[in-house]
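Box 3.1 A note on notation
Throughout this textbook, protein chains are presented in two layers. The first layer is the amino acid sequence; the second is a token string describing backbone geometry. Keep the layers aligned when reading.
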Amino acid sequence: MDDRVKGVSTGTTILAVKFNGGVLIGSDSRASIGGSYVSSKMINKLIQVHDRIFCCISGSLADAQAITRAAKFQISFHSVQMGEPPLVKAAASVMRELCYKNKEDLQAGFITAGWDRRKGPQVYSVSLGGMLLSQPFTIGGSGSTYIYGYVDSKFRPDMTKDECVTFATNALALAMGRDNVSGGVVHLAVITEKGVEHIVVPGDKLPTFHDE
């Protein structure tokens, strides 16, 4: 492995979910180095790349920050050229292109989610190698391995905003309870035609389950 320090990395749980009228994107707030040493409990992994488009990051924070900075510039430039807000898929495609071009050097993956006038709420996962996939919901990061059964059984495509917030908060709380490098607080962004609502759930306000 390269001797250079690439930045905080690995430990995380991220997700994005479509609901009736919008989309929610969320994450825990813990960052780690090498997957074991927790370097920060208060990282906000939700990156706003345009008015109604967010990215959620996992993997190397240094790599993810470099990609999102470049993506913000390209997306804003594209919006100016088009004379209108960018499409969510266009933003996700920018992320995919940046990831693919730098796949040999990157250790980061992304979820891109948002709302636009053409297709409404959308969720896209962008893998480390640059694969782009549209999904009704997606999860990622080390903590996601613990909650596949929960999200598969509880997700419904017609959820209300409040139901979606509960679904996402429960999923993140479950992951944070099992994954020793996921934790801190829950950051959520609810994106609709009307705008963006930010929600922070402190650790002592998260739902608890029978084994905690």
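Residues 1-9, 34-38 have pLDDT under 50 and may be disordered. The helical segments are 61-82, 88-101, 148-154, 161-178.
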